[in-house]
Specification:
The chain is an alpha/beta fold. The chain contains 13 helices and 16 strands. The strands form 5 sheets. It has a 5-stranded parallel sheet, sandwiched between helices. Helix 9 packs across helix 10 and helix 11 runs antiparallel to helix 12.
């Protein structure tokens, strides 16, 4: 499946720094240490509604990481999925009377447009679950072959008891995992399961649901195995970064890692697990189910510059929960205008130290607020006519584009 057209990223003089980020699995700041090619898998949307700022903040975080890795000299092989085979999509289609394929196609197209407007670098492979069913079937077959899965009334389940590392991603206690599984799409109460935490790998065909053929009968993939199969199929048994929103830590990333580990025999599945904090509105997490959404497409249709939207989100660190307020856009719009005014000059204060300050900030757990503050100081100096270095505005303009993804040139 096609992603979206990517932005041109300027090359900067010198080289960026090694980056460290917060690893969920260890609960520590840890350096990323990829080879020449860094591999990253990020869970994509379930396309039953439009992109809200909670989604956008997640993809912006991993876009920032990708840019920092590229600036450090790494090629980044980035894979993102689209969960176009899942209950929420089918439920929304049934509610509206729309074919699920048509609904998914429309919302995926809108998501692509939003990502292009926000200048998010597209993934190397953008893979829908519906086109990856053969990968899923192969992984389920492998899990059955190694004794890590079993059949229950036609459905296939994983066996968490077969994985000695299960629980190492989120580090939750068993009672918490059972509670979260029940809240987030699992079925711990189902009779006949070997363990309440065993996860569905293959759902046997039900009336009115789409299905695909398989050696274990017609049906459709379970949620977690989709991402495991796509990631392993496109990136290999061990990747550098697995990420998404913090609400995916359990059960999704825990089970995806377990499926991949049991199917390949390689542990850990990911060397680093990186998670975006929650974005709220009116005192609650921004979510489709609650309906408290700020939609990227609505902001664009209202004439808001996508660069201002991007700057508003970059003003918040990725690890701290934050809430969208009426002050975010005016503050970002004012900042954008100041930066554009400063970089529109033919000369200005020396930008080389600012570029290094930005690199230092971003290498330190993607500290975007600190990187923005460094550019703010330069723009203030430029407005006060401090410094007359030819080419400095152009260097800063390129650095802001390359590292922060904000286009300052009109």
């Amino acid at each position: 499946m096609d992603a979206w057209p990517g932005p041109t990223i300027p090359a900067l003089p010198g080289r960026g720094l090694p980056v460290r980020v917060w690893d969920t699995a260890t609960g520590q700041l840890r350096p990323l240490a990829p080879g020449p090619i860094a591999t990253m898998y990020v869970c994509g949307i379930t396309p039953y509604d439009a992109t809200h700022l909670g989604h956008a903040a997640t993809y912006l975080t991993f876009d920032t990481l990708l840019r920092v890795l590229r600036d450090g000299g790494h090629e980044v092989r980035y894979v993102q999925n689209v969960t176009d085979v899942d209950d929420p999509l089918f439920e929304r289609a049934a509610q509206t009377g729309e074919d699920w394929r048509a609904l998914a196609t429309r919302e995926i197209a809108l998501f692509r447009t939003d990502m292009q407007a926000l200048r998010i670098v597209p993934p190397h492979a953008y893979v829908s679950v519906s086109e990856a069913v053969p990968l899923v079937v192969a992984m389920v077959q492998r899990l059955l072959a190694v004794g890590a899965a079993y059949e229950l009334d036609g459905d296939i389940y994983s066996m968490v008891g077969a994985d000695p590392h299960f629980g190492s991603v989120g580090r939750y206690d068993r009672a918490t995992m059972i509670t979260l599984a029940a809240e987030r799409g699992g079925d711990p109460e189902r009779p006949g399961k070997k363990d309440p935490l065993d996860a569905l790998l293959w759902r046997a065909e039900r009336p009115g649901e789409p299905s695909w053929p398989s050696p274990f009968g017609p049906g459709r993939p379970g949620w977690h195995v989709e991402c495991a199969a796509i990631a392993v199929g496109h990136l290999g048994p061990t990747i550098d970064v697995n990420g998404g929103g913090r609400d995916l830590i359990f059960p999704h990333h825990e089970h995806s890692a377990s499926h991949a580990t049991l199917a390949t025999g390689s542990w850990p599945f990911a060397r680093t697990y990186l998670h975006q904090a929650m974005v709220g509105l009116n005192g609650h997490k921004m979510s489709k189910s609650r309906g408290n959404l700020v939609l990227v497409s609505a902001l664009r249709q209202a004439g808001i510059d996508p660069s201002a939207v991007r700057l508003a989100m970059l003003g918040h660190g990725y690890r701290q929960d934050w809430a969208w307020t009426d002050d975010d856009l005016p503050r970002a719009t004012q900042r954008l205008a100041a930066w554009r005014a400063g970089t529109a000059r033919t000369s200005g204060p020396d930008a080389t130290p600012v570029v290094e300050q930005m690199r230092l900030a971003l290498a330190d757990d993607l500290d975007t607020p600190r990187a923005l503050a460094a550019v703010d100081r330069w723009a203030a100096d430029a407005a006060n006519h401090r410094g007359r270095m030819e080419g400095a505005p152009g260097l800063l303009r390129d650095a802001v584009d390359a590292l922060l993804g904000v286009r300052l040139q009109s």
